[in-house]
Design a protein that fits this description.
homodimer; alpha/beta; Creatine Amidinohydrolase, Chain A, domain 1; Creatine Amidinohydrolase; 6-stranded mixed β-sheet; 5-stranded antiparallel β-sheet; 15 strands; Peptidase_M24B (chains A, B); Creatin/AminoP/Spt16_N (chains A, B); Creatinase/aminopeptidase-like (chains A, B); Xaa-Pro dipeptidase (chains A, B)
């Protein structure tokens, strides 16, 4: 048995909150397709989600993990449920046009007597396909399917003390990653070599805990890539006088704290310093505004007012709820810091406020992972916010 | 402009093969949701697929990439099409219940005049959700949607010389990764530290090329995890006398060669040596059988006969087509080496034959990435196959 990240009481509490919401929505069963949600409810942890895998939550009793037979062994090693609640479908259902895993899973649900009534299901989870859904609904003709997207995600939005402790460890790894980037990146160093050093800090940066894979890989925006987010590293070497945006994170037991910073090789140009000043003031405005009772869109409005004073604009949102995460995204798809988001912030919310300004041919990013506390907020990462100049 | 992995002629040839298949199936348009397929057709390369993103292939003219506005900048830097064929949807459509990117994309397709006729669409691509499909079909009421899963994947199955060159580079990175694992793994070393060293070899192992992220992260099966594939690393330190299965790969311009090997700390136990012998004979049987004209299931049958002679059985398939890959899977979902797969192998096919035997509390894995040649086959990786014993 692999050590579970949390005590049994934590999982029971999560399950109770999810069931409370199921009852409100008159659901008889919940089918959880999102991998982070599956892990959140069961502790199951394996890179097996490239074949269909679901967690089924009835109103009473344990949840059931259903996945590939080969991975049910790992399910029994990582998930907290009794072995009979970790169920594998036959290997001959894997990636073949002849049989679909959802045929088998649907039959299993029906045989269990759970194929009637209202079934809530996550219809926008990564790795749950239109074909999978068509096959599942075909196998369960007596059920009424109800969209349950984000039901579990909204339960996740408020973090427990134990979760916050992991996020703090993730924050230490994120700090180690940025410090390593500052240390290694210099003219002549290749992007891929910098990424290797950064990932080493992400995985090895804590003595008593492993760093986990981050849901997004490290991104470094420099040179030809500097004007666009989310591009991948290459064989290119850094050159003198580049402005380099680093979008990094650290993850401990999959709890992820983001940390973006910007560094400057050589002398910081005036236009970079000007945008930096605006962004730093914008971050101050975010941190002054974010507290229990504030509406999410007011945090963005405070940022917008600050950068507008500098003649700058930004179209995209500036932050999102963050927590337990699996690839491809560490955002939780619930709270966004943007116009029109009316979520009222409360203690235990954690948002990654990421202030990315992509200009013509260069860009800067500065972020903080922010815990809403009883009285205000706290940045989980503790790292100088200014652009790091390396001459 | 970021350097494209291939010449223009390569993309034109791919497009011609895809259109040939579209015509055969009487498709007027193809919507490509699979990220590896999108990259294969357009060279687009960014970690942006956590928001909806499609590539639309009409019967004439350039394909069109449609994704998040923020990522269209990176699209214009990486994709080979004219800038007007890289199209961004507004940021206020990102992860909000009020607007769905597929509403916008569907309208765009309709306005282009492509909303009529038969539209082929990949219904089992990762990151394409049932909700996305429902919104898209709602926005295109005059189209007939036809399942086009694996249409592009089957075009990908036969590799060009330029693709094989990248797979050879990926194979060098995979060899570097296994060599590094052999070097670093010893009693007292933590799993997470070994993973960091292995990833460094995967990214930095070639002087003239960057190593890319592999579609599956490195997996190390040892200690409590040894009896199950696909589990993730932890803070645990290796101990004396462990049998350790390494499932690794290397990726160059996302072309991925897999390489699994097994190492033994201390003296190799008799039961491990017995299974090793069977697996090595099984690999010999695979390599003797795999050639143009052989049916995929006969390769598996040769393996099965070999291990049956040693009293061993394996339920799951022993290999799959491999090539260009993005997370979460490096398999191409076409050819499988297993019972019932009637694909006739041909020159240019590349399969990852992975012989994993997970026993009670331990396991071994040995794999080869195999290119089918004109006369037989060739392993792209060149690395001693026997269990590496480290005393």
């Amino acid at each position: 048995m692999i050590s579970s990240p949390f005590e049994s009481a934590e999982y029971q509490s999560r399950l109770a909150k999810v069931r409370n919401e199921m009852v409100k929505r008159r659901l008889d069963l919940l089918i959880v397709n999102d991998i982070a949600n599956q892990h959140y409810l069961t502790a199951y942890d394996g890179w097996s989600f490239y074949t269909p895998q679901v967690v089924v939550v009835p109103l009473t009793g344990e949840p059931v993990w259903l996945g590939r037979n080969m991975d049910a062994v790992g399910g029994r090693l990582t998930a907290w449920m009794k072995p009979e609640n970790v169920v594998g479908y036959p290997e001959d259902h894997v990636q073949t046009p002849e049989r679909h895993p959802m045929d088998w899973i649907g039959r299993w649900i029906a045989e269990k007597g759970w194929g009637k009534g209202r079934i809530g299901i996550e219809l926008e989870a990564y790795y749950y396909s239109p074909k999978a859904h068509a096959r599942l609904t075909m196998a369960l003709p007596n059920a009424v399917f109800v969209d349950a997207d984000l039901l579990v995600n909204w339960v996740r939005a408020v973090k427990s003390p134990a979760e916050i402790a992991y996020l703090r460890l993730g924050a230490r790894l994120a700090e180690a990653a940025v410090a390593k980037a500052y240390e290694i990146i210099s003219p002549g160093i290749r992007e891929c070599d910098a990424i290797a050093a950064i990932q080493t800090a992400q995985y090895s940066g804590l003595r008593d805990h492993a760093g986990d894979i981050t849901a997004l890989p490290p991104t470094i925006l420099a040179g030809e890539n500097a004007s666009a987010p989310h591009l991948m590293w290459s064989n290119r070497a850094f050159t003198a006088n580049e402005t380099i945006a680093l979008e990094l994170a650290g993850a401990c037991r999959h709890y992820t704290s983001g940390l973006a910073r910007t560094m400057q090789l050589g002398i910081k140009p005036r236009h970079v310093a000007d945008v930096e000043k605006a962004v730093l003031e914008g971050m101050d405005a975010v941190l002054e505004t974010a507290r229990p009772g504030t509406v999410a869109h007011d945090v963005e409005a405070a940022w917008r007012a600050a950068i507008n004073r500098h003649g700058l604009k930004k179209e995209s949102r500036i932050g999102y709820s963050i927590g337990v995460a699996f690839p491809p995204d560490w955002g939780e798809h619930t709270i966004s810091l943007r116009q029109g988001d009316t979520t009222v912030l409360q203690a235990g919310h954690v948002v990654h406020a990421i202030l990315g300004m992509w200009m013509e041919g260069w860009g800067i990013e500065i972020s903080e992972t922010i815990l809403i506390t009883e009285r205000g907020c706290e940045t989980l990462t503790s790292f100088p916010r200014e652009i790091f100049v390396k001459v």
